[in-house]
């Protein structure tokens, strides 16, 4: 029984890989041929989330849950488990080519950027009334890995008397109400606030009111880019640094936040 379940997971995993790779081909070819269904929002969002998950886990050095499940089932059946990831295993087996994990992570990232480029060049069709609610949920889900980082960091100020509130689709966390009550160390911090996904962290309530509109633009950016935001933000800073500009002030996402707030 375990052998059959492992084979079923293998087929499912192959289907996911086919959806991610074939999905991009379908989007490009479909738009060139003016086929409408390739821009249906449910399909496009599912595809974007799928490649986003793949890119994130590759940069974290994590093994795909489906690979872990298949390995456990094969072990229960007395078979041999993979020593590497699903993709690496089958690339090595079918093409007789082995490469370090960073090579595959880079390839996943480039493929993810190609998906994002297709998204911007051929955006999905708008959702209907019920679809807008689904879209909102998908945006929260897409940015959720980034929001988890913010929630973990929020534990520190909340454990020492900070406060949190949910406002306009984001969790706002502050250390103290005013600058006078936050202590010397917190009062001298050069960064007065930061955002991760749908979590906005600020030193004081006054700081939150001052930087709130700016950080709300970043929330929208997280909703658009999801886990890829960390990568593209860093890439933008690196590009500015290479060109002799300030990596923060001239960062594309910071410029956009200043312009739109």
Overview of the structural elements:
The protein has helices at 2-32, 41-60, 65-76, 86-95, 101-121, 129-159, 184-187, 205-225, 228-242, 252-260, and strands at 163-167, 170-176, 193-196, 199-204. The chain is α+β, with helices and mostly antiparallel strands. It has 2 domains: 2-125, no CATH class; 131-260, no CATH class. The chain has a 4-stranded mixed sheet with strand order 1-2-4-3. Strand 1 and strand 2 form a beta hairpin. The radius of gyration is 22 Å and the shape is globular.
What topology does this entry show?
Blueprint: H1 2-32, H2 41-60, H3 65-76, H4 86-95, H5 101-121, H6 129-159, E1 163-167, E2 170-176, H7 184-187, E3 193-196, E4 199-204, H8 205-225, H9 228-242, H10 252-260
Helix pairs in contact: 1-2, 1-3, 2-5, 2-6, 6-8, 8-10
Q: What's the arrangement of strands in the largest beta sheet?
A: 1-2-4-3
Give the fraction of residues assigned to helices.
Answer: 55-70%
- Rg computed from alpha carbons, rounded to a whole number of angstroms: 22 Å
Structural class: alpha+beta
Task: List the total number of helices.
Answer: 10
Portion in strands = 5-15%
Order of SSEs: HHHHHHEEHEEHHH
Form type? globular
What's the total count of β strands?
Answer: 4
Termini Cα gap: 58 Å
The number of domains = 2
Please state the average pLDDT score: 81
Low-confidence stretches: none
The largest pleated sheet is described as: 4 strands, mixed
């Amino acid at each position: 029984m375990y052998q059959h379940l492992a084979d079923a997971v293998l087929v499912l995993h192959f289907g996911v890989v086919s959806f991610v790779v074939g999905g991009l081909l379908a989007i490009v070819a479909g738009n060139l041929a003016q086929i409408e269904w390739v821009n249906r929002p449910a399909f496009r969002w599912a595809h974007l989330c799928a490649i986003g998950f793949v890119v994130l886990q590759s940069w974290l050095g994590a093994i795909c849950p489906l690979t872990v499940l298949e390995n456990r089932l094969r072990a229960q059946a007395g078979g041999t488990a993979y020593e590497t990831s699903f993709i690496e295993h089958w690339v090595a087996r079918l093409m007789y080519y082995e490469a370090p994990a960073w090579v595959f992570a880079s390839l996943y990232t480039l493929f993810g950027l190609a998906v994002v480029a297709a998204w911007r060049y051929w955006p999905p069709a708008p959702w209907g009334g019920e679809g807008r609610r689904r879209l909102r949920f998908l945006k929260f889900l897409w940015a959720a890995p980034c929001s988890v980082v913010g929630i973990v960091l929020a534990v520190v100020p909340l454990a020492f008397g900070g406060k949190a509130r949910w406002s306009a689709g984001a969790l706002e966390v502050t250390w103290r109400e005013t600058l006078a009550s936050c202590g010397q160390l917190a009062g001298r911090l050069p960064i007065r606030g930061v955002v991760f996904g749908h979590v906005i962290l600020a030193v004081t309530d006054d700081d939150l009111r001052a930087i709130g509109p700016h950080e709300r633009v970043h929330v929208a950016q997280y909703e658009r880019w999801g886990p890829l935001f960390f990568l593209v933000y860093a890439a933008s800073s690196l590009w500015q640094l290479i060109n002799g500009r300030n990596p923060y002030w001239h960062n594309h996402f910071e410029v956009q936040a200043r312009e739109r707030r």
